[in-house]
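Extended Data, panel c. Modelled sequence:
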Amino acid sequence: MNNNTLKVNIQKKLKEFDLNIDFELKKRGLGILGPSGCGKSMTLKSIAGIVTPDNGVVSLKTDEEIVYFDSNNKINLKPQKRNVGYLFQNYALFPNMTVEENIAIGLSKNDDGKTVSEMIKRFHLEGLEKRYPRQLSGGQQQRVALARILAYSPDVILLDEPFSAMDTFLKEQLRIELVNMMKDFDGFYIMVTHNRDEAFQFCEELIVLDDGKIIAKGDTYDVFENPGKVQVARLTGCKNISRIEKIDDYHLKSLDWGITFEVSEKISPNITHIGIRAHDFNPAQKDDINVMDTKNSTKLEMPFEWEITLANGLWWKREKQIHEHEFELPDYLKVDPKNILLLEE
């Protein structure tokens, strides 16, 4: 897959905003993270050929280049010609077909049935071959939908919020299964989600989308570690965000929490906010750097963590064991200068 590239550069005028997407995927897995209604699914549908952009190009380069869409050259391949697998949120199985018939739907008439039995085995669907979708659990339906996609060896798999309709237990199980399945898949896959854990778990590269525009893109770990913008920090799960007033190159005052902080990076003029992730506080002494007292804090016990809200509104999450029910709050907390995120509006 070394020189394989999926290029997507598309524009489409929508009712709420203009969709403007431009990326090149060279690694296998891309996550598109963003709030509901920001253009994530529309991007997938444009790649699959279900929706036609107003302008742009969508192409896949493997041994040769296949142009799916090119507005200038009037190219717009039908979805069936693109060899792209699309996993819809509701799986879109044919209700009047059995599991094996659903899996076989995209295969050529000459297929001897070997592919279907391989997929039945690979997706642990033995014993369910003659059942109809209504007789399957959500997890089994998802496995059938994935088996149907992988049966015809697509070049690209598009996953549209694949876990949104599931309860937590099933979600965890299927996430692990899907991670393992994608390891065996040789092409590109793109997952659309508004869940930061899914994006982090599945995807080597990440795009953050807001109102149809890319507001961050890069290696997934980098985007989480250095979100750069307020909205990106929020979408990657940063709970503490405050407006700031710059004091000097390495010191600022948080306007929302009333604390002066030292930071490890020079504060450029376009920095308007800071972010502190809720796990990044540590017990401290009164005269440490970036220290705050914990007087009048509220403590909320969860099964595996304490959620502590300081009087100034800062939020600290501290891990705990399930059988631990007592926790002595330290008098002071601190945050390392390098863990303070400098953010632009």
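The CA atoms of residues 240 and 276 lie 5 Å apart. This feature is highlighted in the accompanying rendering.
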